[in-house]
Amino acid sequence: MTVVETPTKTILSIKDLKTYFPIRAGVFRKVVGQVHAVDGISLDVIAGETLGIVGESGCGKSTLGKSIVRLVKPTSGSIMFEGHDVVTVDHDTMQGLRRQLQMVFQDPYASLNPRHPVHEIVAEPMIIHGTSKAEARERAGDLLRAVGLLPEHGNRYPHEFSGGQRQRIGIARSLALRPKLIVLDEPVSALDVSIQAQVVNLLEALQEEYDLTYMFIAHDLSVVRHISDRVAVMYLGQLAELASRDDIYHKPAHPYTHSLLSAIPVPDPDIEAQRKRIVLVGDIPSPANPPSGCRFRTRCPIAQDRCAAEVPQPVEIRTGHMVACHFPLDEGQTLVELVGSSRR
Amino acid sequence: MTEPLLSVRELSVDFRTKKGYASAVRSLTYDLMPGESVAIVGESGSGKSVGALALLGLLPGSASITGSAVFEGEDLLTMKPSTLRKIRGNRIAMIFQDPMTAFNPVFTIGDQIMEAIQIHNGSTTDEEARKKAISLLELVGVPEAPKRVDQYPHEYSGGMRQRAMIAMAISNGPKLLIADEPTTALDVTIQAQVMESLADVRAETGAAMVLITHDLGLVANSAERVLVMYGGRVFERGTIRDVFYNPTNPYTYGLLSSIPRLDREEGSKLQAIPGSPPNIVNMPPGCAFGPRCGFATEECHTSAAELKLIMNQHYSRCHNTESLPFVSIGAGA
Amino acid sequence: MSDTEARQSAADIDGAADLEILKEQAQSVGVVIDVEGLAEEPQSFGQQAWERFRHHRAAMIGAAMLLLLILAFAIGPIFSPFDFKEINVLERSQGPSFKHPFGTDDIGRDLMVRTLRGGRISLIIALVMAAISTILGTLFGALAGYFGSAADAVVSWVINLFMSIPLLAVLLVFGVKLGSSPLQTALLLAMFGWVGTARIVRSQFIQYKNMEFVQAAKASGASAWRIIFRHILPNTLGPILVAATLATGVAIILESTLSFLSLGVRPPTPTLGNLVAEAKGDVVSDPFKLLIPGGFITLIVLSVNFLGDGLRDALDPTTRTEG
Q: Fewer C-beta neighbours within 10 Å, C or N terminus of chain A?
């Protein structure tokens, strides 16, 4: 039997993380501005859980994931993992941390090198970290089997596989180093509807089998709800709301979470026919030039003067339920009740 | 009974490839009543887009098209290209997935909408056309339309561009809108805006719509009837209530049970459909869904089923409809 | 695993019974097995590229022509009874005859052996130049494209500088001083030839370095060296080879131009350019003396360009024989 651990052992701790990208212009590539991709995120990831990160384009969810595995270099803040700060750690220590910290990418067509046979793709992380070629190849076969492919398929090239099969290969590669935490960056959004469920089920089975912790980044709230234990909602580089899965979906407090949930059509004609929907006005502002105060205020149907003046700090409104909003909604309250269903 | 606006019969599309003919669409048949909205759902390779592009003569030359598609008494498929051009963008308008490539980057949005108006109504003056362009942009919810009419496509956000495309599509009061994955490239909150614009526009103009999508939620939200396509064939056809509440085809059933749903309590595991959608160049013998179907019998692997009437306008393509455990004929609506 | 073994195991897994067992095993641990839709025979990228190349008519003609030319240049002179330096004043300025199929020059040297010999030297110069400029261009292009920032600024600046210098003027100036032996001529040409390859490789690397498979390699801890050579370079091989064939054609023409202007390889060593230069006085009286070396220049350039076209199509990862 497995040793029972404290239920809330933190495996990864992010404190005030900021990742900015410079905007350059002109002949001398002078820095003329900053894209505030991630702008002050703090959160903990608990061992064994799946933390869902949702948000729309430009919210910085992918940059957050890439910062954790240091595919992009954060500007400031800290990411504590295994006693080291990923933000400042030296190259050699980072090599060691990479074994524990892996990533699965969105596009199964772009994430596998078209010139390498599949067993090489899966074995590569092991070879980089010093496993002998023969052993790496044998383990690659085991990994292919673990994700529902066959070792015999290892000498084929990525283009021979379907999208779902390729994503399985990408997952096998991420497992190669026996990581503790895997950042899944939109792992199913490029797949056909009928394939998504297969991959989600596979991820769940592997999590159990290998004791994995997941950070599941997605824009699809339905998939996130299915797979996550806790969910963080991001908007323009910041955390809007973070809570357990049930709290986010049943007791959302942030008006943005409400709007997101309201925007998703559900495959039920009667519900859709009766549903009162909040349709947000306007576009998502540019992360290069975010609004003052609360980032969401330009589209928020209940924004007030205070929202432009003051940045709302995350507040714990119930155990484990953080909201960054000056006027969070109470349990049972809905945005539609407050402002009426919006017909523009 | 009123005449259908569009009547598609036995539409088949084949592509010549190096490895022989690939059958993209097989015997597609449906009617569209004036003002009605029909959704065509399917995954990649299901033929859902090809079937619509064929109507407008927008397929490459390697496609061979058979069947008929009668629109207001004329067959679109046998029509001269010059006649079809007059219908396209006028009585039938198309909304594409990627609004960035649908607009020419070197002209303003206003210029392009004005051009669309003047192509089909040569007598319209520039001033009238401009006024109309502004009112169209206002109708689809582009803020500050009089100012934004003079902006270039790159100055519009993705959602705004998609609305501008809707404005352009309805500029000549079309009877039929074909929307091919109109919101797939957009964020959910923006998708809601665009779908709302589309609904407003249809309420205003009374245009019928063919909505092509892979999103079952969108179908439930904005169509009256639905065609479920798989491997180039229609697998199920009916009103959205019939298809969503009483699916009679294993593929539809599988699709509906495999997606995680916000409107239901969380189950522990998703009911995944095994395997991958078929490659149209290399279709399985028998039923296209046979290799992935949990209810397949011997017959399914050797012969393809016909689309059969189950009841009252509800059709399904399956050999075993009667014995499927989830089907209760006579129940429901 | 050998080929037959691979085929055997492919047959095994296609066997429905085995597959069922595997599926059951997999399902018991919660993993749905997904192996449908795979082709019978795995095909490597190289095999596919070869398939495409083989069916590319222009490329095959180009390759065959080039092979024939190389063969003729390499072993042709051996079978000739004459040496390329052998002077025979009794047989000066002859037209084509059985004894001298290409005729003789104004001091009685056999033009056939001189043309083949000259073709050999011209082609060697061109290949050496193409090889050097491909290696240099790939190296600098890869460094600039992959590392960006300062490395890119420097390399791009040098590329632009070289591209803004009128090549012929520089060759005229330096050719007198440097260009006298075939090797020197090749080096001189390569000094300018690498720029084109570097530009292509740089843009390819910029395109590939942000692709997800490169990100995945980085996330696994792959070194820059490994990413450049194992991941990106194999994907840019097509454009590099095409650039190399084009460079070969350009080098042949440049060498001819230099030699024609008496700035390339010094006579009596024959090159195709030298032979054209020597023939220029007799264009009217004896056009063959000009047309023959000129024709060889055209043949070589045509065949390498055909070859380049074929390589481009064959190595383009977006064209696939298999869907």
A: N
Measure the CA angle with vertex A277, ends A305 and B38; round to 5°: 145
C81 shares contact with chain B (CB less than 8 Å)? no
Please say whether the beta carbons of A203 and A214 come within 8 A.
yes
Contact B218, A265 (CB under 8 A): yes
Domains, in order of start, for chain A:
10-228 (3.40.50.300), 253-344 (no CATH)
CA distance C188 to C182: 10
**C contact residues 196-255, partner A, Cβ 8 Å cutoff:** 211-213, 215-223, 226, 231, 234-235
Mean pLDDT on B124-135: 91
Question: Quick one: CATH architecture of C44-315?
Answer: Orthogonal Bundle (1.10)
Instruction: Please tell me the predicted confidence (pLDDT) of residue C35.
Output: 52
**Residue (of A57, A55, A60) closest to A34 by Cα position:** A60
Residues of chain B with CATH 3.40.50.300: 6-220
Q: Is the pLDDT of residue A43 over 60?
A: yes
Q: What percent of chain A has pLDDT over 70?
A: 96
Cα–Cα dist B205/C54, whole Å: 57
Angle C294-C298-C300 (CA atoms, 0-180°, nearest 5)? 115
The structure tokens listed for A69 are 């595995």
pLDDT in tens, C120-139: 888 888 888 899 999 999 99
The alpha carbon of residue C33 and the mean position of all alpha carbons in its chain are separated, in whole angstroms, by 45
Residue B43 CB neighbour total at 10 angstroms: 19
For the domain spanning B6-220, the CATH number is 3.40.50.300
Q: How far is CA C247 from the centre of its chain?
A: 7
Helix (H, G, I), strand (E, B) or coil at A52: strand
Residue in B with minimal Cα distance to A259: B189
